[in-house]
Structures are given as structure tokens and as C-alpha cells.
Write a structure and sequence with these properties.
The chain is of the alpha+beta class. Helix content is 18%, strand content 39%. The chain has a 17-stranded mixed sheet that branches. The N and C termini lie close together (8 Å). It is an enzyme of class 5 (isomerase).
């Protein structure tokens, strides 16, 4: 399939607060990503390594984004990757706003100045069947030890409010909650400590990935859950292991603002690609 003369497959390595991504720009030429291919590229010893892989294609807006977790599963939403790609596309086109499409729906992105990028992640999904959960229940208080809150942001979330986020064994709690029977599609897991009425300290276990330094959709879900419980206002600062995001739950959706970084561009070699067949 590939020869020594065949050019490799170009990619970009990006991150938002250490939440890292491999990104393929497939607008000019399609790329057929399989779950096995995503897994192989995502391996941090035998591949490149990432929390999510993102593919940019042409769409009804400025671009369409498709996301894969490091276990090869699809994810409808990835907030930090969306911000990274929005920054790349804005730098490429010279524009300061974009209309992006994802499996989550249409997302607006804009330059927030000062090196920051904002994305509207859409309205939160608050009903049990939207998250989704396995049966009808109050999403504000789940019948799970720790009294978490369920929120959908195009992907499912389970937020635990705790006294000390640092003290939680996230590597133990994360997989238990991710695979809880109440979540038929598994779930992302957050432990959130309320620091003040507009300030949250949060740690993240991502579905299909594990512990990550940051997560945009998790930050949005936690901000919504905290506001619904009356623990904070609708605009909050969220401090994650990798840095700070600002979340603002407005009438038109949940806006997320923070820094991005395009670390390097590279190319998967023909030999590596051949090993995947």
C-alpha cells in the first residue's frame, strides 16, 4: 500500500492546557481513520500519543470536525481540540470568527484576543435521555455514591463536588464512574472543588482516555452543574491540572475561553502506516 517513495501522512500536534491532540487537515484530501488506526497513533510509546485525534474536513460551515478518543472510540465533542483547530483556521484565513460543525452540532468560534480563543459549545443537555442515562431520573442528584450531577455537552459527564479535589483518588473513582450502569455510553468524570462563587478547582477522568491535564467539555459540564446547584454563578474560572479556562453559561450556549498551542507539525512515515494494515 505504501512504498519508500510514498509521502507520509502530515499531522499537527496541538494542546489546550496540556490536553493534547493529533490533528489531520483532510479538507483537500480525505483520510480514512479507523478505530485501530486511532489507537495506534494514540499510543504514547509506539505512536505519537494524544488524548484525542481530530480530523478537519469540509462541511456546511467553515469546517467539520470529527473526534476520536485514544482507545479508538468516537467522541461527538472535544472543546479544547475545537479551540485549537479554530485558532489554526483563524490564523490560516486571517478571520476572527468561524462557524464549525461537529457531531455535537454547529459551534461558533472567535478570537478572544491576547492569545485566547473562545468556542460556544452549545446548550447543555439536562434531561436524563439527552445525557444520556439508562433510565428516567433527576440529573441534578444521581443515585451514585458521592451524589454527582449528570450533564450532556454532546458527550456525557458525571461531576462530583468534593471538599478537596487533590485528595480524591481519581484513578480509582474515574473508571468506576465511567462504567457505571447508569451511563450506557460511559461517561467523562470530574471532581470539582468550589473555591469561591466564581472559582472552581477541577480534575478530570476522560472517557476512553483516563486522567487528563484538562478537558474543555468537562469544564463546561462542571460549570453548568455548579450553577444548577447554586454553588457558583454562571461565569466561572476553572483551574485544571494544565491551566485555567473561563466558562460562561449564556443564553446562546456555554462559552469556553482559554489558550491554545500548535506544538509542531510532522508526518507519519510510510513504514508506520504500512504497519497498520
Amino acid at each position: 500500500m505504501y512504498s519508500d517513495q510514498t509521502p507520509g501522512l502530515p499531522f499537527m500536534k496541538m494542546h489546550g492546557l496540556g490536553n493534547d491532540f493529533v490533528v489531520f487537515d483532510a479538507r483537500a484530501e480525505g483520510i480514512d481513520v479507523t478505530p485501530a488506526m486511532a489507537q495506534a497513533i494514540g499510543h504514547r510509546q509506539f505512536g505519537v500519543g494524544f488524548d484525542q485525534l481530530a480530523v478537519i474536513t469540509r462541511g456546511t460551515g467553515d469546517a467539520h470536525l470529527t473526534f476520536y478518543n485514544s482507545d479508538g472510540s468516537l467522541s461527538a465533542a472535544c472543546g479544547n481540540a475545537t479551540r485549537c483547530i479554530a485558532r489554526y483556521l483563524m490564523d490560516d484565513t486571517g478571520r476572527d470568527s468561524l462557524h464549525l460543525t461537529t457531531a455535537r452540532g454547529d459551534l461558533a468560534a472567535k478570537d478572544a484576543r491576547g492569545g485566547l480563543t473562545s468556542v460556544n459549545m452549545g446548550h447543555p443537555q439536562l434531561n436524563w435521555d439527552e445525557v444520556p442515562l439508562a433510565r428516567e431520573m433527576d440529573t441534578l442528584h444521581l443515585p451514585i455514591d458521592g451524589d454527582p450531577t449528570a450533564t450532556g455537552m454532546g458527550n456525557p459527564h458525571c461531576t462530583f463536588f468534593v471538599e478537596d479535589a487533590e485528595a480524591v483518588d481519581l484513578s480509582g473513582l474515574g473508571p468506576r464512574a465511567e462504567h457505571d450502569p447508569l451511563y450506557p455510553e460511559r461517561t467523562n468524570v470530574q471532581v470539582a472543588q468550589i473555591v469561591g462563587p466564581d472559582h472552581i478547582r477541577m480534575r478530570v477522568w476522560e472517557r476512553g482516555v483516563g486522567v487528563t491535564l484538562a478537558s474543555g467539555s468537562s469544564s463546561c459540564a462542571t460549570a453548568v452543574a455548579a450553577a444548577r446547584r447554586g454553588l457558583t454563578g454562571r461565569a466561572v474560572r476553572i483551574d485544571l491540572d494544565g491551566g485555567t479556562l473561563h466558562i460562561d453559561w449564556r443564553e446562546d450556549g456555554v462559552w469556553m475561553t482559554g489558550p491554545t498551542m500548535h506544538v509542531f507539525s510532522g508526518s507519519l512515515t510510510p513504514a508506520f502506516l504500512e504497519s497498520l494494515t
